[in-house]
Amino acid sequence: MTGNNAENTLVEQWRDILSLHARTQCELDRTLHGHGLCASDFEVLDVLAEGAAADGGCAYRVQEISERVHLSQSALSRLIGRLEKDGLVCRAMCEEDRRGVRVALTAKGRALHGEVLPVQRAVLGRMLAGSG
After folding, report:
1. In whole angstroms, what separates CA 94 from the centre of its chain?
2. In terms of DSSP bridges, do strands 101-105 and 89-93 run parallel, antiparallel, or are they unpaired?
3. Is 56 exposed, middle or buried (0-12, 13-18, 19+ CB in 10 A)?
4. Per residue in 52-91, pLDDT tens?
């Protein structure tokens, strides 16, 4: 019986995590929509902003971004294509590996990230307060 209770507790904890994630993702999508972004768009901009070189250079390979934003490589490529079409990021060949592609924020992308950052962080603060 004790093993079952422990297992049930684990399952409940897991479902609570999934529920919190889903609610937070929906709230982020709803809030960021007014800025023309979804939660995944912002995550990519945020990762790029964190790793931006002082000269605004291409900081991350697509594969490195996919590891940080938890999207498949193909989904991320589509998302980056959309962000590039909107003028928020640019892609360039890697100098050290011509098969690789690096992604960087454009000036427009940096400006939008700076504008949306406090909005996104406020949603996280509100949704995750007391969740631990």
Report:
1. 22
2. antiparallel
3. middle
4. 655 555 578 888 899 899 888 899 999 999 999 999 999 8
Threshold 0.90, pTM exceeds: no
- Please give the full DSSP string across 2-71, using - where no structure is assigned: HHHHHHHHHHHHHHHHHHHHHHHHHHHHHHHHTTT--HHHHHHHHHHHHT--TT----EEHHHHHHHHT-
- Closest to 59 (Cα-Cα) out of 40, 45, 76: 45
From residue 8, alpha-carbon distances to 3, 17, 21 in Å are 9, 14, 20
**Angle 107-128/2-33 helices, nearest 10 degrees?**
140
For the record, the structure tokens of 55 come out as 């000269």
